[in-house]
Amino acid sequence: MGRAANRVLRHPVKRKGLVALRLCTGADGLAEVTVTKRHGVDYRAARDVEWGEEWAPSMPDRD
User: Fold this and answer.
1) Can you give the pTM of this predicted structure?
2) d(Cα 19, Cα 4) in Å, to the nearest integer?
3) Do 56 and 2 touch, CB atoms closer than 8 A?
4) Which of 4, 23, 29, 59 has the greatest number of CB atoms lying within 10 Å of its CB?
């Protein structure tokens, strides 16, 4: 079984219309990701993700 590409390091910060995630990534180390309602499916998944779980968004990486 392979390692997860991204893992949620802290409890997600949930605000109206957005979720902020702190992730440990395989490529970049630590990353802060903000998922908004505009991201549709990923936003709904981000609302349900818990600390320690894998995060595999369907949206391409954006900087």
Assistant:
1) 0.79
2) 20
3) no
4) 23
